[in-house]
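for the recovery benchmark. tokens below, seq after
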């Protein structure tokens, strides 16, 4: 058996509204849309799957979409100008973490690595 990556997906209550948020607010490239909407997020496919079952998208699952940012303050300010509020950044040791939620309560993280963490991570993958 060979397993390969397909996508990360979120359940959403209103596909049209969610497409506007992910495309126009977060700036993700919409690559296709039929019964689901597919986005390219830096080479990873994110799918939005409509559902009427509230429990499927309660925002309480353990999956998160994590977006790397170079400058946390600038990223948060840009999102605020688009009407999106994120939490105050928390120092997690190797970097800063801030969270926001989409229109259905799905958690999205902003992550800024500290320089030392970025260098250490790069050297781990160099081999």
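predicted aa per position
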């Amino acid at each position: 058996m060979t397993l390969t990556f397909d996508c990360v997906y979120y359940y959403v209550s209103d596909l049209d509204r969610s497409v506007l948020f992910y495309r126009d607010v977060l700036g993700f490239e919409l690559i296709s849309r039929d019964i689901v909407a597919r986005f390219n997020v830096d080479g990873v496919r994110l799918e939005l799957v409509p559902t009427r079952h509230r429990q499927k998208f309660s925002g309480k699952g353990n999956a998160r979409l994590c977006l790397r940012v170079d400058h946390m303050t600038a990223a948060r300010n840009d999102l605020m100008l688009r009407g999106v509020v994120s939490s105050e950044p928390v120092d997690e040791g190797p970097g800063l973490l801030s969270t926001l939620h989409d229109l259905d309560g799905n958690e999205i993280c902003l992550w800024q690595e500290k320089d030392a963490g970025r260098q250490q991570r790069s050297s781990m993958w160099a081999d």
